[in-house]
Amino acid sequence: MKVRLEYDDTPRTPYITIHVRTDEGTGSVRSNYLTAFGEEHVVILEAPKGTVQLRTKTLKKRATRQERQRIEAIGGRRHSGSGSFAGNKSDGSTDRWRMENKFTTAESFRVTLADLTKLRSECRGFQAPVFNVEFQEKTGAVRETWVLVPAADWERLVHAQNA
User: Are 77 and 151 found together in one domain?
Assistant: First the structure.
């Protein structure tokens, strides 16, 4: 929370303005300087304009839910700690797939070759890397989901379906 005081020293009406800014919003209240101190002031907060910042706890819950849903959809299991432990890197896996899940509320998401190479290096045996990107509304509703797989694995899937 940030609080800022402004002093208006107009001779007839000396005022202070108390500005408050928090994650939940901003607000201000104006008070007579002569009576302002020693009193309780209520500042009504307005929701921030533009983008809404999501709390870290909310983001973590969303990420965990998204990982669980995506991995269970392919019959896999989620790695505890979202891949933070040695031997269980990435977000989850099956015998056939090693999956990394990301989500964003933005209009775009950047994936680098280093991200994909890292995921491929975490694959064991005959696992293929799967990079899942989910575009969400600010409310958490899913707008669209995209999956990135190496071209060779994609071609094998297409040929297997056609056979």
Answer: yes
Whole-prediction pTM: 0.59
Q: What is the DSSP string of 21-51?
A: EETTEEEEEEEEHHHHTTS------BPPSSS
Helices (H), the chain: 33-36, 56-73, 113-121, 151-162
Top-confidence range, 4-18, 45-59, 111-125: 111-125
Is residue 51 a part of any domain in this protein? Answer: no
Q: Are residues 83 and 118 in the same domain?
A: yes
- The burial class, CB within 10 Å (0-12 / 13-18 / 19+), for 132 is buried
